[in-house]
Design goal:
The protein is α/β, with parallel strands linked by helices and about 350 residues long. The protein has helices at about 25-35, 55-65, 95-100, 120, 135-145, 165-170, 210-220, 225-230, 260-275, 305-325, 340-350, and strands at about 10-15, 40, 50, 75, 105-110, 125-130, 150, 180, 190-195, 200-205, 220-225, 250-255, 280-285, 295-300, 325-330, 355. The chain has an eleven-stranded mixed β-sheet with strand order 1-8-2-3-7-4-6-5-9-10-11, with helices on both faces. The chain has a five-stranded parallel β-sheet with strand order 14-13-15-12-16, with helices on both faces. Bound molecules: adenosine monophosphate (AMP) and magnesium ion (MG).
């Protein structure tokens, strides 16, 4: 299961209905993980690429299958809160309160690690990131594995994270032992990553659990300035946040400003790009899609319900690649609530290429 041959692997694709669990299949997936194999599984955030988080060899195979830089640490996934204890040196009171409120769910806590956690997982840091997912397939598979499951998003490094089984098959067929098809995911963006090591809470990556929700429990919350500034030059505290991410093959440009002006500007840009012979995709919203007369227009969701935008963002970026557009012109979104995470991912996919309308 190692060496160069691993990229010509026989990948089993197994359908498991989240509403009618096949426990036999889940036990087989868990056993495969425990034995050092790679299993792609659905979570409520995005699809994950899992391996035994206590087996350094298995963890290294994750990095190889994804082409992920080895200095980008992984999240350990557990199925019961008590499984946290042996992975960390201490659990600050604030961390317990956050777990109580948001686990299982899309919140990852960064805590001081215990010696049990291999360096391959943490990229040599003295902290470890841990999450308890709420998806029934993820939860049961991790339970049957009997070990913490190290899992980044199940995409080739740098590409948009997978939110549908077809995305995983496209990226990782032949590179992993098993793919569990559990249908479309729910949140559509990766978990919120919060460091809780000193007294306070620092958001290292915005996600499905919002800043506002964490504030209700923890009181004061800090955001890593590299996120709040939306600036490519800041060095983030979370190693993974410094890499190019979520990039489709097409160039992405975000158009920011008052919505009416954004629409006009996108029309002008589309016209100009098409006159240069470029194929243009427009990432619109339900409120604006009918206003565009050029390019291939896809609505990413409803501005009144930002969670629909989160759920569709990565799938729409991949859809534009499937169509073969050269440039994606994307409307900017409101940054409150889950919008902070949406704009963080969108700006990264654009390499911070922003045009002011
Ligand atoms: P992924 O699982 O691909 O969504 O990436 C996991 C994210 O968690 C990356 O942005 C990592 O940098 C971050 N992460 C994992 N472990 C740590 C840690 N110990 N300290 C800070 N960030 C971490
Ligand atoms: Mg990822």
């Amino acid at each position: 299961m190692d060496g160069e041959m691993s990229f010509f692997m026989d990948t089993q694709v197994v359908r498991i209905d989240p509403d009618n669990l096949d426990h036999g299949a889940l036990k087989r997936a868990g056993a495969l993980i425990k034995a050092g194999g790679l299993v792609v599984f659905p979570t409520e955030t995005v699809y994950g690429l899992g391996a035994n988080g206590l087996d350094a060899g298995a963890v290294k195979r994750i990095f190889k299958a994804k082409g992920r830089p080895s200095d980008n640490p992984l999240i350990l996934h557990i199925s019961r809160a008590e499984d946290l204890d042996r992975l960390v040196a201490e659990v600050p009171t604030t961390a317990s309160m956050l777990m109580e409120r948001f686990w299982p769910g899309p919140l990852t806590l960064v805590l001081k690690k215990s010696p049990l956690v291999p360096d391959a997982v943490t990229a040599g840091l003295d902290t470890v990131a841990v999450r308890m997912p709420s998806h029934p397939v993820a939860m049961n598979m991790i339970y049957y594995a009997g070990v913490p499951v190290a899992a980044p998003s199940a995409n080739i490094s740098g590409k948009p994270s997978p939110t549908r089984t077809s995305h995983v098959v496209y990226d990782l067929m032949g590179r992993v032992d098993m793919i569990i098809d559990g249908g479309d995911v729910d949140v559509g963006l990766e978990s919120t990553v919060a460091e809780v090591t000193g007294g306070g809470v620092i958001i290292l990556r915005p996600g499905g659990i919002t800043l506002e929700q964490i504030g209700e429990v923890a009181g004061e919350v800090f955001i890593d300035p590299a996120i709040s500034n939306n600036n490519a030059m800041d060095i983030p505290r979370s190693p993974g946040m410094k890499y190019t991410h979520y990039s489709p093959d097409a160039e992405v440009i975000v158009i920011d400003g008052i919505l009416d002006r954004v629409v006009i500007r996108i029309q002008q840009m589309a016209e100009e790009l098409e006159s240069q012979g470029k194929m243009v995709g427009i990432m619109a919203t339900d409120q604006t899609r009918a206003l565009y007369k050029r390019g291939t227009v896809i609505s990413v969701g409803d501005r009144e319900r930002p969670r629909t935008i989160a759920a569709n963002l990565f799938a729409v970026l991949r859809e534009f690649d499937g169509i073969g557009v050269d440039v994606i012109l994307a409307e900017s979104m409101d940054q409150s609530g889950v919008g902070l995470a949406v704009m963080n991912r969108l700006l990264k996919s654009a390499g911070y290429n922003i045009v002011r309308a």
